[in-house]
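Can you give me the bound-state structure? Components:
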Amino acid sequence: MTGAVPARQARTIRTTALLAPSVFPLFLWMVVPLAMTLWFSLERYNLLSPGKSAFAGVENYRYLLTGRALWVAMGNTLLLVGLVLLITLVAGTLLAVLLDREFPGRKICRFLVIAPFFVMPTVSALIWKNMLMNPVFGMFSSVTRSLGLGAIDFFARMPLVAIAIIVAWEWTPFAVLILLPALQSLNRDQKEAARLDGAGVLALFYHIELPHLRRPMAVVAMIETIFFLSLFAEIYVTTGGGPGLASTNLAYLIFRDALLNWDVGGGSAGGVIAIILANMVSFFLMRLIGRNLEDQR
Amino acid sequence: MRTRWQVRLGLTLAGWTVALGIFFPILWMFLTSFKTEIAAVATPPAVLFKPTLANYSAVLQRADYVQFAINSVVVSLGSTLLALALAVPAAYSMAFFPGRHTRDILLWMLSTKMLPPVGVLVPIYLLWRNLGLLDTRAGLVLIDSIGVLPIVVWMLFSFFREVPIEILEASRMDGATEGQELLHILLPLAMPGIAATALLCIILCWNEAFWSLNLTTVKAATLTAFTASFSSPEGLFWAKLSAASTLATAPILIFGWIGQRHLVRGLSFGAVK
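Here's the bound-state model for the whole set.
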């Protein structure tokens, strides 16, 4: 026996070799593009005029920050995030409470509710745009017309709301997916006791179920926020950011600058701003998940 | 007793109404895929119609559709296999030989997910162009597997931790090396968890839109990019779009049905068990 120390050293070396295949690519992924984005954002660099790139300092940022587009896009991004979060959390909670009850066919209903999450975003956006929200042939307009209300041209009149509805349809299932098991882990005895004490359905929901859901709801909110901050496919397929800038969010603005106008410098500066915005949110998410990891030990 | 019965009936009605309402767009897509193009744009929408399979045969006869479908299969399976291959050793090491930094590494991996893809769109596009990876399946596999890697490590880690360490220690007593221990003991024991992880991975990669829209054009474009091409206003090919979309969605819906119990773990990064 050579003792415990060499054995432990041998083990440390081994774990490094085991960890490296996933740590190294992720490290590259974090560092290289980020450094490049930062560097490009300080350059005057357009792919349409190659060879003319030059250091530009904060010019790209000044151009973005003093222009209107960035602020409109930022406002749209936050509005979209807020709107969809509100819908998915409220609808997701109500659906989870409903699906937590016993009734025939509950399992099938649960899957029908979760199903939209599995549909690829381009497909869901197109179904909604063409078959449901189209002002002439869509399902909704034929319903409103038959009620004598006339047709609503969702994407011309309220593009952001229309996109929010589509995204909410895609992501409410995610909220249900997380909140329903959390609800089912609630102690049955506690609920039974509350019921025997004469608590109604509403009191039960408000005093027992809702407090129990607070943490899973926070998790849902933050994970969704991360995804909603860079919503892209739904906008790309439905409105192309328009009319005007009405449905352009930060992700779409960067795409437009970088890959439609080939303005590498401007697109990168926008990217840096997007990263800063996302980091503010993820800071809180990481703290929450980190605390949870501690609890499990 | 009677009120109890009424409550149950009310719940059943409410549950089914809401569920069918949410599912309706998918159902409508499915129905439309069996209509003629004329019936698909009928106003008021045609509920009763003579079903036709013409759209499916039209879609399947388009050589490019088959190409897109193959790309989707190759990219999602390729990314899943690559991500699993990279993640299994790491998850094994962190689950069974946790060190002082295990928690930090896990959180750091997760934090890479917080980087918004648009933030690095420009450099990735330029890098991929210079590396000749633009519009290649390899390029998409690379970026998709990096994208799911943190989720895979997390999910595998949480599954591996449920395997009793005594079993592994027993095999080590019998003289098994780590490689043997991993291959012959842990992987078979954790197979259900690995399968669930793979399933979620396939779903995420299959539906991934941002990178496939931005990094591919024709050769390596997946079904997400293909369906997006229907957004152009010139043609109203709703029935064909529906048939193509149904074909693209059906396998994932089936995977989702199979894996729904385990998805929560991966999607919440272990924050909700």
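A couple of observations. The two ends of chain B are 36 Å apart (CA to CA). Chain B has a mean pLDDT of 84.
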